[in-house]
Design goal:
Phosphorylase Kinase, domain 1, alpha+beta, Transferase(Phosphotransferase), domain 1, about 25% helix, 13 strands, 6-stranded antiparallel β-sheet
Length: about 350
Amino acid sequence: MPSPLPPRLAPPIFPSACAYSSPLSRGSALLQVPRMRSSPPAAPPGRPWSSVIQWTQLRVSEPAEPVGAGGFGSVFRAEYRGAAVALKRVRTRAKNPLAARRSFWAELSAAHLQHDNLVRVLAASTCAPPEFGGEDCLGTILMELVGTRNLQQVIDGPEPLDTWPSYATDIASGLAFLHRHWIVHLDIKPANVLLSPDGVCKIADFGCSLQLDAASGSAPGDHAGLCPQHSHACGTYTHRAPELLRGEAAAPPADIFSFGITLWQLVTREAPYHGDRQQVLYAVVARHLRPPLTLAVFMTSRGRGLATLLGRCWSGDAPCRPSAAELVGVLRTWSLNAPQT
C-alpha cells in the first residue's frame, strides 16, 4: 500500500549534494563541512547524511504528550508541511548516552529505504531549536504517522485476529526487503510493528538494527550472502535469538527467530514465556526452551503445518532457519487460499 503521506513530504535522506551534518553541531541544520567537537559520536563510516528538517514547517501538537516512549526518547504527534507525522526525539540525558547515540544512528541505517511494510523516515537532524528540545535533544527523526496501534495492542485487545496470516506476511515482506539491503532489525516483536488504519503492518523502531557487510559472490537475502557482525546488547530478551544471547554475531536468521516468536503470539495471543528473566534466558540457550506448540490451535491440519514452520524459525542451528523470502511465499499462500485456523 502506498504511504498515506504526499511524496512532496519526503526529501531524500541522502541527497546528491552530499551536504553533511555533524552529530554534535548546534548551528544550522544543513552544513557543508562537518563541525566536530572533541570525542563526537560520529556517524557510521560511509554513511554521510543530510539534516533536511525545515523547522519553520514543523508544528508539534499541543499539549506535547508522547504517543510512544522508549529508553532513549519519545514519539510525538506533529504536523510537517501540512501533513500529520510522527516526531521522535532521542534524549541527550538518557541513562546510557552512548547507547542513545548508537540507537539514533541505527535508526537511520534504513532511512533511505522505502517499502510498504517499513515505517518511512521523512527527515532527520542532530540539532534542534530550543522550542523543539534544544540541548536535551541528541537527534530528531520525522516519520510517517502510521496509526495509533501496534500489534501488541491488537493481541491484547478484544477483536478477533483472523487476519494473522496477512499480518505475518507483511512482517516477513518487510524483513525480506531489509535483508536484501544488508540490514538486520534485531528487535522484531509485536510492539515494534505498527498497524495502519487499512490493516497494513509496518516494521518500526530500528534502534537496534545493524548494517551488515555483503559477502562477495552471494545473492542478497541469502543467509550465506551476509557476513555476520557483532551487535551491542539490545533488543527484547523474550524474542532474542539464542546465538545473540550467547554473545555471537548478528545475522538475518536472528530476525527469523524473533519473527517466529511474534507469529506464535499472533496465533495464540499469549506471552511467550513466564517466570524469572534470568531463568528464561538460561533455558532458551541451554535447554532450548521455546513457546509451547501443544495448544489446541496447533492440533488442526493447518495448525500442524504452522507448528512445523515455527519449529524451523526457532531452530537452535541458525543457518537451518528459513529465509524471510521463503516465509513470504508460505504465508502468502495461507493468507490467500487456506481456511482460517
